[in-house]
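Dear U.,

For the methods section draft, I wanted the exact inputs and outputs in one place so we can describe them consistently. I've listed the two proteins in the order they'll appear in the manuscript figures. Please don't edit the token lines directly; just add comments below if something needs changing.

First protein:
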Amino acid sequence: MSIRVSASILDCDFRRLEQELNAVVNAGADSIHLDIMDGHFVPNLSYGTPIARAVRNTVKVPVYSHLMVLAPEKMIARFAPYSDIIIFHIEATTEPEKCLSEIRQAGCQPGISLNPDTPLDNLLPWLSRIADVLIMSVQPGFGGQQFIPESLNRIARLCQWRAEKNLKFTISVDGGISPANSAQVIQAGADLLVAGSTIFKSADYQTTIRALKCLTF
């Protein structure tokens, strides 16, 4: 499977949202990543369902809703109509079973994310039941942070588990991803790279996305 890039719109120009979405998809983004923040699980606030609806109505590529919120089970129904995959943080809920069930009942695929300091072992009970693992390679809540190098070991370990257990989940990586480190992240075992400011603050979206995928013209 070729490497995929998901464009996180947190750093896009929201005054030109439709144009930004079309531009990034035409430039080669394989999906759109929505960072939903509540100001409690992470210190920042982002956007709600009106933005999610606008994204869903504009693009045909998959939409990932990344719930960086406390008690994500309370938010799933709100974002499901606009999402293909809903990702929740294992640290943010005492009811992961309920989250998985509600995501599937809503017609979406479930994913689980975990913060840089959370042991990977916390994922073990759920790996056979999810479509995506999102490794946070920065502390969640703000764009533009530096990639945490230890994330490479976490990606490689997760990739090894997947092979040993013959599982099918995708390994996604979010935070500090740039053309300077994407080759290392891919080599460690990532399937999908989430990038926001790296893309939207660049002069040429297509060149940047191709560089993230380690492609040449």
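Second protein (the one for the lower panel):
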Amino acid sequence: MQTPNIEYLDHPADVKFRVHGRTIEEAFEYAAHAMFGVMIDPDTAATIEPVRTIEIDLSADDCKDLLYDFLSELLYLFEVEEIVFGRFDVEQIEQVGGGYHLRAHVSGEPIDRGRHRFEVGVKAVTFHDMRIERTGEGYVVQVLVDT
């Protein structure tokens, strides 16, 4: 998925992307779209039907940990449950006590290797060069995934 909110950056070995969102929730949604944009052919991404919706409820010590956990959970569901996602609705990210909490619903369909075409395999989300910055226009999130 290539949008004005998603920018893929040069990296010699892996894939790095930067996303822009008006809210932290929107930035996390674009980060999920960007990660799946690495893995899935754009024509395939456009055909994904929201036949299965999964609720994601995560807590972490800080926003970087929360982003890492969110993207890693999506990667786990893709690899183990064999679900390809096309819709990401991060409903709320809030500070709770000394940490952060995320509630989201993600929708997609079971992987169909005859219909879905895949681009690059993402092995893992990394903390390397991960950034979450608040700007005058919202939030900028940067992620490097191991391919």
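Candidate sentences for the figure legend, describing the second protein: The chain has a mean pLDDT of 95. Residues 19-146 form a domain with the Archease, Possible Chaperone; Chain: A; domain 1 fold (CATH 3.55.10.10).

Thanks,
Y.
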